[in-house]
Write a structure and sequence with these properties.
Radius of gyration: 20 Å
Oligomer: single chain
CATH class of one domain: Mainly Beta
Helix content: under 10%
Shape: globular
Distance between the termini: 32 Å
Structural class: mainly beta
Strand order of the largest sheet: 3-4-7-8
CATH architecture of one domain: 6 Propeller
Number of strands: 24
């Protein structure tokens, strides 16, 4: 892990000799004057030329750490790796891969760790008391390595979780990425050439918005316009687009 002051030289904060356990440093972030990061070993095995030979998600190891901003005073706060960790307020939300990919929450020092959403949870976004996230629908059979027996069973859906009422599926179109601007959730529809669709929070309706095909990633620029990366049908990057979400005023960025 390195840092760089704008225009200056890189400074190593945590390296192979100083990191507390072996593994890959991931999900580095700063919160409340501390540096947080996870060290993960993903359960993969490789040949000498780094060709992947096996993967066992049940053998994933690692831990989650906090350190001073200069990389000193490293403290382990979770005795397990954290995937996709984000601070919302003073609480840390993360996917616990070793607990069925469920969403966990804990205090900033790792205490009071518990399941927040008892479901496979990816790409979660919080809106007040509501959480939007991508999960799987239906029953998926997993083998002894924690991998799906039939990959075709992994049908992704967009869900909403409200603590008082539980979980509800709001779109079944196998979304691959989504974003939220406070009034609508915009997502890609895998079954419609990855075009952009929208879920309106107030009405609960889904509709097609931006009819460019094969959207790869996108981000809100403001309440009505989107910055998106477009690909061809083989998902090789082709163009970068700025447009209104209704498909008007499309501009390609060279």
């Amino acid at each position: 892990m390195k840092s760089r002051v704008t225009g200056g030289e890189e400074t190593e904060l945590i390296g192979p000799k100083s990191q507390p356990i072996p593994g890959t440093i991931r999900y580095v972030q700063i919160h409340d004057g501390y540096l947080y990061f996870s060290i993960n070993n993903d359960g993969s095995t490789f040949t000498e030329n780094y060709a992947l030979t096996d993967k066992n998600v049940n053998t994933i190891t690692g831990a989650f750490f906090r350190a001073d901003l200069d990389g000193s005073e490293i403290t382990q706060i979770l005795e397990k790796p954290a995937f996709y960790p984000y601070f919302i307020g003073d609480r840390l939300y993360y996917q616990d891969y070793l607990d069925g990919k469920k969403l966990h929450v804990c205090d900033a020092d790792g205490t009071n760790d518990h399941i927040f959403i008892d479901d496979v949870c990816y790409q979660y976004i919080k809106d007040g008391e509501k959480f939007y996230y991508v999960s799987y629908d239906g029953d998926v059979e997993w083998d002894e390595k924690g991998l799906p027996v039939n990959a075709a069973d992994l049908r992704r859906v967009l869900k909403i979780y409200v603590p008082e009422s539980g979980t509800e599926v709001i779109s079944e179109v196998n979304p691959t990425t989504f974003a939220f601007n406070g009034t609508q959730v915009v997502y890609t529809n895998y079954y419609d050439s990855k075009r952009m669709y929208s879920y309106h929070v107030e009405t609960g309706k889904n509709e097609a918005l931006y009819l460019e095909e094969y959207l790869w990633q996108f981000y809100w620029l403001d309440d009505t316009s989107i910055y998106s990366l477009n690909a061809n049908k083989d998902f090789m990057m082709e163009t970068t687009i700025v447009a209104n979400i209704d498909g008007s005023e499309i501009k390609a960025i060279e």
